[in-house]
Every structure is written in C-alpha cells, then in structure tokens.
Amino acid sequence: MNVPDWLADASFYQIFPERFANGDPALDPDDVVPWNSVPTRDNFFGGDLQGIIDHLDHIESLGANAIYLTPVFEANTNHRYDAVDYFKIDHRLGDLSTFKAFLDEAHRRGIRVVLDAVLNHCGDGHWAFRDVVEHEAESRYVNWFSVESFPVSPHPEPNYRTCSGCYYLPKWNAYNPEVRAHHFDVARFWLEQGIDGWRLDVPYFINHNFWREFRSVVKSVDPQAYIVAEEWRDPEEWLQGDLADGTMNYTLRDLILGFTADRSIDAFSFAKGAAALRARIPDGFHAGMLNLLGSHDTERVLTRHHGDVAGALLAYDLLHSAEGAPMMYYGDEVGMQGDNDPGCRGAMRWDEGEWNQEILAHIKLLGTRRAEHIALRRGVQSVTALDADTIVLVRAHEDERVAVVAHRGPGIDIDLEAIPMGPWLPIGAVPDDDGRCRIAECSTLMLMSGKEPV
C-alpha cells in the first residue's frame, strides 16, 4: 500500500483562514476588531479567502507546495469547527466562486489544497439540529443526533451527545445511514470542486467502519487525494491501508521539542524514539506523515522555545530533514509568538518590520535545500547520536545521501569520519586538514555524499 506519490515532495503551510489576511473588507462582520488586536476565542479579525489569494507569493517563497486550511464552511465561530452548512463557504470568507478562484490560482502555482473534514460534530446552528430543536421527536432528523430527552436543552449540561461536552457542538450519529450519506456527499462535493485531500478532525471519536467507507468514497473520486488523520499518540492504527494515508505527526513533534526546547531528552533518547516511531509506521506510509512543530492546537514554536531563536531553528532543521511532509503553521516563519488557543491564533503580521528576518531566511533556505536534494524528500531515514547533544539524521536515496548533524550544545569540532554511512562532504562549510568540521553553538551541519557506493 502506497500513499499518493506527490506527498513525498510536499511541504505544507497551515492557515487559520480568519486570521491570515483580510483581502475583502466588504465581508467583515459588524464586530470586526483591528487586525493587531489580542486574539480571543470569540473575536473576528476579518481574514478571508481573497487574503490568502493575495499572499500566495509569500507562501510559495517558503518552498511550500501544499496548503492545509482549517474549516472554511458556513459556521458561527471564528474557528468554524461548528459547521451550519457543509456545502457553503462561510459568508465572511467569500463564496464558492472565491474559493474556486483560490483553488485555480493555487493549482496554477503547483500548490495543492487540503480541507478540514469536521464530521464528528456540527454546530448547534446546523439546519438539521435546529429542526430537531423545533420539532423534537417528530423531526425527521431526530436520529441524526443522540438526544436523550425533550425539549433539547444545552444547559446546565446538554441532554444530547456533543464533542467533548461542548454544548454548541452536537455530535452526529455516524451509525445512521442518512448521516453517512450526507457526510460522503460532502466529501465528494469538495473533491469535485478540485480540492486535493481531507484532514480528518478528531477521527478517533467515530468508528473505523465509517472512515473505511469515507476512504472508499474519496479514492473513488481521486485516487491521489490525501487523507490525513488528526492523531496525537498512535499513528499505526490509521495506517493499515483502509483508513488514512498518514497522520499528524505529534509524536515526532514531542521528540524534536523535547530535544530542542524543553531539553527533557538527549540525543540518545531522540535516536531511540525516532527509530521506534519509524518502526511503528508501516512500510509505504512514511511519506504520508504530516510533520509539524506548531498548529492551531498548540503554542507557537518560538514561544515553546522561550524566545530562543537558535533553538527554534534547530527544531526546524530536524523537522525539514525527517521522513514525511513538513508543515509550517502560518506566522511561525516570521517568528510570531503566542500561547495555546487563543494565543496561537493571532492575526498574521504583514508589517515586515515586525518579522524575524533570521527565522524567515532560514525557513526559505530549508525549503530550497529540500527542493534541491531528493534524499531529503524521498530518502530512507536513520537516526543516531554522536553524543548527548548531537543528533545525526541520515536520508539515504539511490541518487544521493544527505546527513543532518543537529547539535544543541556549545560549538564543537566534528570528525566527519565518525558520521555513519560516509564519506561525507559538508554543504556550506570547509573541513580542516584532519577532516574535522566546526559546528557553532546550537546549530546544524549538513553533509552530502554521492550515489556511488562507498
């Protein structure tokens, strides 16, 4: 079983649409706040699809060739995980024609688009749930949800099943054939508009049989469509060939940030953990993993590193070197900071005077290197430790091998002959007469070897 081939060369950029860019102020809600306001769980900044179109040059400049959008369907909140109509673009983002214009322009640039499939629950404003509230047991949609008694009551505790107890997120009854038909129609509709895949929101709250059918529907429309499951712990459950092509790789995130930010693990533990994670992912699925350091559900990368730019850059080096598709959360590339929700969902800073140019230049360099070296995209990964502070991540492809030596301690001299699978030549550095190369404090050395056997 193999994942869609394009994923091996993919580099993702995640956008929270409401906070990325305001391209059409005419769509702004009446209570829109100034762009640089402090984010809350309720306020609206006016981000829209036209804003994304206007800034595709920026996304492309990072080396990104895929975009993951958090929900874009009609909803009542800024996060839109409370859909009220899955077949409409939220009116504050634009409309279907705007979305198609976005897709067309993204595809013209070679950028694929993945949408968020929020099918475990909807919003309490969804037309089917409103019909149940109004007509109670007589509603033809009453079995689309799980309501214990009437009248439907959200407070003090909802008397219907919800997502994680949140009253405004009633849970779909995914065992109901009509609900399944609705959800599969949603999957088909947006694929037919031209999207390139689905990210499954909280899929662990729905039984696997549903997702098996979902996969069949998706692949029948587009065999190269990407299906990636949100999963925080156990990726192998989703990677048996009948559910998803990959998962959000939070386990890799824990390893990288444990090494670079928290200093809770050393290089030996990182190497052991990386090997164990790789072994858990079945053959053929490594390229489908969606690797991340930050998202709309975490604190920002620079915040996690307590403002330490060198540590954050080291984390990005490991992210862009690992097997799987790297993903950058909007704003992290310019050094935005923020704690977890709502702090991580601040409006994108478009004033270049506020950008951390060192981080931005480094992210662009990583994008260039990944594009130039097939081993960084399609090579088989192995990880070892030289010492407690030094990781060696090797990607071996039939055409070349690349080694990334990530060091978090004081500056040291590295004996290139000590790096496994050599001999190696440094990229952007010159070894001394003894074949040693200097690595500055908390930085990375990249090495390359040709395809000839050694």
UniProtKB/TrEMBL annotation:
Name the UniProt record assigns to this protein: Neopullulanase
Domain of life, per lineage: Bacteria
Pfam families attached to this UniProt entry: Alpha-amylase
GO biological process terms on file: carbohydrate metabolic process
An annotated Gene Ontology molecular function: neopullulanase activity
Keyword Amino-acid biosynthesis: no
Residues of the Glycosyl hydrolase family 13 catalytic domain: 14-369
SMART domains for this protein: Aamy
Keywords of this entry: Glycosidase, Hydrolase
Enzyme class, UniProt record, top EC level: hydrolase
InterPro entries attached to this UniProt entry: GH (IPR017853), GH13_cat_dom (IPR006047), O16G_dom_2 (IPR045857)
Gene source species: Microbacterium hydrocarbonoxydans
Listed EC numbers: 3.2.1.135
Protein encoded by which gene: nplT
DNA damage in keyword set: no
